[in-house]
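Predict structure. Chain length: 192.
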Amino acid sequence: DAAVDRFVPVSHATQDAHTIRTVFRAGQTPVEVEQLLIYTNGSPRYHLVWNITNRGSQVYNDLRFVHGGDVSYYGDDFGYGYWGAGSGMVYVASSTPGHPGVMGLAGQTGYPAASYYENHFQLVRDACKTGALPSSARADEHDLSYALLWTRPSLAVGGSWTVAAYEWWSLSESLFLDAPAGQEGDPGDSID
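Prediction complete.
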């Protein structure tokens, strides 16, 4: 819909030392998108939560929410793309000599993405604009970018839809585990 191809800023504020809250209106529609970016100093990940609320007087159908971006390590954005089916994470590995690293984006437990895309940044950007991602990752060296897509059949008047994800990174490629989604624990815990 041409009415929602741009977001209109409503508010932006730091809620506490670890949370930034930004609210946008979806184009000229009465649909509001609240984004919470939550980061704890020293953590290798940050959490993203989007609350999408229909403040209008009509039902919206065939909703598609896309999040993604261009990826860079140490000022270089070339590497290899991957999909972790077990974790529901689209991720990339740096090809920069002397600066190995892995970075990924996944839906949080209970918020799996409907599809993903990893490829050259311009191709990912173009796919995001269409609201359809082909669920593929490019394994040869290229200019890195990735995205996830969540879908919902409809959003009722006054209804809300929550989408949650996290972005994770490592500064080393010596160990990367692609564990099944929905399982978390602390060191020493047993996960079934």
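Summary: The radius of gyration is 17 Å.
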